[in-house]
Every structure is written in structure tokens, then in C-alpha cells.
């Protein structure tokens, strides 16, 4: 029997359709650049990737190691300049508006309107993701930087109570030291030193003063006695730290707390996520509370993604990621893993642990109690941030440098960089 003509026509057509379908499926990918490389951060990224996968979109990971996103930002700029921009990138703080001004970011107004972001997000978050009336970023979580972690087993064995002020802290630290436990964990990595310092500034002052110092770039405030006290406390705390203070990745410091080698640690609440991946549970193996003197304040950093507006070939997939990342279900899952809290005002606090509830409720009190982290890219531009961190690290490492010299140097840098920015 002769094969019919239709067989010769249908088979190639079917192959063409299949090839077209396969190509379309292959195009359902998003190249995502970020700096989440620790165990807990990877799990949090996987939660977002899994949500995308259910919509048949592949998260193509481009994770760049390096604390505080230093390496990732360099790679992002390099890729952009070489014409290989990712579809999605982690970008936070003032940089969002700067990149939007250059026309580099996809506007997410339709996604925002359809999902009621203006009503759902905290006012501070809503302001953060908008530029000239357009939504240009999707927020995924709020971190509290002014967090003191403590080892519950050691505290229970020694009959210690978590310190609420610095006098109590020194008494607790002294007892830990006499018991052979390093009282306060610390790495000499510059960004980790700066993280501790900015919590001390907040402890010695207020969110209003903090914002004037770091956000508004008032160089005269660097000579304020409150800054002097913060610098002096930073150095005084060294007596409770490891000797010598090694340059250790924050994940390694987390393991020190988990093992009981150290009793306390000041770090953003992403540390909670890392401790959880080690099998530790909040309120059982470890506890967390605000850094002494900051119980009513929230020093924050917000994880955000931007969609790069290249040829708009991935716009549908980019908008889908934005919609999913801000949805209540994904927000709850992601932040439970990451250690942060949802950006939504309608979040279910019953799904949060005690540390997360305290963070979310404090942030919910509004802008008067909120301070944007300098170290974690929420307050200053990149140039000033890097200059401040370098000077703080120099002061921390060299006992011979007086606080007054560091204040003078940073004030001069703030004045010079501020003038250059205004000229630009």
C-alpha cells in the first residue's frame, strides 16, 4: 500500500510544531544574578526558583559569592557594559533609583496594579520600589540588622539573662569570659565591622540622627559626641571578642555560635536563617533580641530584585517572577527560610517565630523607628559607603588611631563625595 500524500505533509508539519514548541519552552528561562551563596540563602533562592518552576519558567542561577554583595555588584556592572545583562538582578537601596534613572529597569506598573502592591506593602517599601511614579523593583524581604543572637544552652548553664543595655552586656560578657566562652563573636571583614558599628550608632542616638548622618550626608554630624561614643564602644568591645580577631566569613561565625564557642553575636537576622539550616531552632538552641539600646528601633535592609529592560524578550517571565515573589504564599515561605520578614502589611504573624514577629511589628510602627542600613546599601551611595567602611575598618584594626582622626577623615570624605555628587 502506498503511503498517502497527507503522511508526507503532516509529519514535517508535526516536526516543525514540535521544534517550535521546544524552542518556546527553551526560552522560558530567567538569568538571575544575586549574592546568596550560604546554605540558608541558597535554600531561600530555591524557594523562589520552585515557585517559578511551577509556572514552567526556569531560574538560571548566577550567584556571586562575597559578603554584602560587593562581588555581585562588580559582576553586574561588568556584564551590563559587555552587553550580557542578566534578566533579573539583586539590587537594593538608592541604587534602584539610580539605575531606573538611566532607563535600565523594566517598569512593573501592570504587575503592581493587578496585585495591589500600593495597599499591600509597607509605606517605606512602596517608596523604595518606585521612581518617578513607576514601580521598578520587586521587594522580597526585610532584614533587621540590629539583632543580638545568643547561645541559649550556655546562657541557661551559667544562669544568664540576655542583656537589654550595655551595663548588663558587660556583666554577661565578663561571666562568659570567666567560664571560658568567647563573649562576643566578630570577624575582621570590613563589612562585618561596619555592621557592628552602625548598630552602635543607632544605640547611642536615634533613627532620626542615624538618617541625618548616613542618608543626608551631613558631614558635621560626624563630630557629634554620639558618633564618638559609638566609635569608642566599637573599640572597647574588642576585649570581649576572639584574640586575634580573624577575617572569617559570616557563615563560619554562625557555626561558632551554634557550637557554643561564642556566647553572643551582633549580625543581621539572615544569621537566623543560617542557624536554622544547622538544625537549631529559635527559642530552643538560640535566641535573638535587639542590640542593647535599640529595642524600639529597626535598622533595616530590604532584599529586592530588578528586571533589566534589555530587548524585552523576557518581559512575560520577568513579570511572572515579580508577581510570584511578592505574593503572600511565596513571601511567607521565602522569609521563613531567609530569616527576614515579609514586606506585606497583611502578613500572618502566626506563621512567624518570636524573632520575626518582633522585627515585623517594630517595622510596622512606621518611618520614625526605621533606619536604613548604611553597610547594606540602603542609606548611602556606593562611593561614600565604601569610603566609610574602609575608614571604620582601619580604626578597628589599628589601636593607635584616635576616634577623632577617624571622624575627621570620614567627615572630609562625606564632604568631598557629597560635593562631587552635586556637581554630577
TrEMBL record:
Protein's UniProt keywords contain Translocase: no
Keywords: Signal, Transport
Keyword Repeat carried by entry: no
Compartment annotation: Periplasm
Alphabetical list of SUPFAM superfamilies matching this protein: Periplasmic binding protein-like II (SSF53850)
Cellular component, GO annotation: periplasmic space
Function: Part of a binding-protein-dependent transport system for a sugar.
Protein's name in the database: Probable sugar-binding periplasmic protein
Species of provenance: Andreprevotia lacus DSM 23236
Organism taxonomic ancestry: Bacteria, Pseudomonadati, Pseudomonadota, Betaproteobacteria, Neisseriales
